[in-house]
Design goal:
XdhC_Rossmann_dom; Rossmann fold; NAD(P)-bd_dom_sf; XdhC_CoxI; 295 residues
Length: 295
């Protein structure tokens, strides 16, 4: 029986090496958590590893509250793009109420995080054409919709999807600096999403599919309802490259992709420059080499 990539990614029985290989193939961000020091009675010895992604985890550090806290920290860092290599000490009895009574130090390393994030909200015809294009770019893509039947074809392509009808969750699920394209089947939903995204003041690009008429109506209402009327100016509508015309789903998709590409490239360049000047990992490995655990 042939398994899809989605089935394989959801297979939590994978060992940590296989999980890393699969996540690398998909270009998905993940954390490798490794026990690098121990004292007393602990669930797993030094060298034990597990892999944590946004939605899954693979292998184990022994289960229990320790493992849950490791997962929580890794996911929080992935979500907030706070992905510096880090070492955390866990006292199993004092901190985690585990009866083992020992202590461990865990090294957190993050991979595939130096990529821009793109979210498409609304999985209709244009999204079905746009999402595979964006997935082929060097970025993390998430598609959000309340309709499972429209998300299913995208999930089968290995695209990260979120099924929800909660608009607050739609926006809250996105990391800072995500490029958002809003194209739902409902103008009322479009407006509420635009308002929430603009109020958040943490997204560099908020694009809305629609006509000039739709833009004018939305801008009038946004200026009435936003806490700061100047925020409305950030909305890009009609979304897409102005020189690429057409109304067919693929034509609109190509136009939007053409507008996104230079923005994603610039963010990628900025990330590389930041990484080159960041000495945090070098300092952290000095810390690893000298690591000790006190009782």
């Amino acid at each position: 029986m042939k398994h899809s990539l989605t089935d394989m990614i959801d297979n939590r029985s994978l060992n940590w090496i296989s999980a890393c290989q699969l996540l690398e193939q998909q270009g998905l961000a993940y954390c490798v958590a490794t026990v690098i020091g121990e004292v007393g009675s602990v669930p797993r010895s030094s060298g034990a590893k597990m892999v944590i992604s946004a939605h899954n985890q693979y292998d184990t550090l022994g289960g229990g509250n320790l493992e849950q806290q490791v997962i929580n920290k890794a996911r929080s860092s992935l979500h907030n793009a706070n992905v510096h290599t880090d070492i955390v000490r866990f006292a199993l009895a004092a901190d985690l109420a585990q009866c083992c009574g020992g202590a461990v130090q865990v090294l957190f390393e993050y991979f595939n995080t130096q990529k821009p994030h793109v979210a498409i909200i609304g999985a209709g015809h244009v999204c079905q054409a746009l999402a595979p294009i964006v997935k082929s770019l060097h970025c993390h893509l998430k598609v959000i919709d309340k309709r499972t039947d429209w998300l299913a074809p995208l999930s089968s392509l290995g695209i990260d999807t979120l099924q929800t009808d909660n608009i607050e969750e739609m926006i809250a699920s996105l990391p800072d600096n995500t490029h958002i394209v809003i194209m739902t089947h409902d103008h009322t939903l479009d407006f509420e999403l635009c308002k929430l995204a603009l109020e958040a003041q943490r997204f560099p690009y908020i694009g809305l599919i629609g006509s000039e008429g739709k833009k004018q109506r939305f801008m009038f209402r946004l200026k009435e309802q936003l806490s700061n009327t100047n925020l409305a100016a950030q909305l890009i509508c009609p979304v897409g490259h102005p020189d690429i015309k057409g109304k067919l789903p693929m034509e609109v998709a190509v136009s939007i992709a053409a507008q996104l590409v230079p923005l994603l490239q610039q963010e990628q360049n900025d990330m590389h420059e930041l990484a080159k000047s960041n000495q945090h990992k070098k300092e952290m490995w000095k810390k690893v080499n000298a690591v000790t655990i006190d009782n």
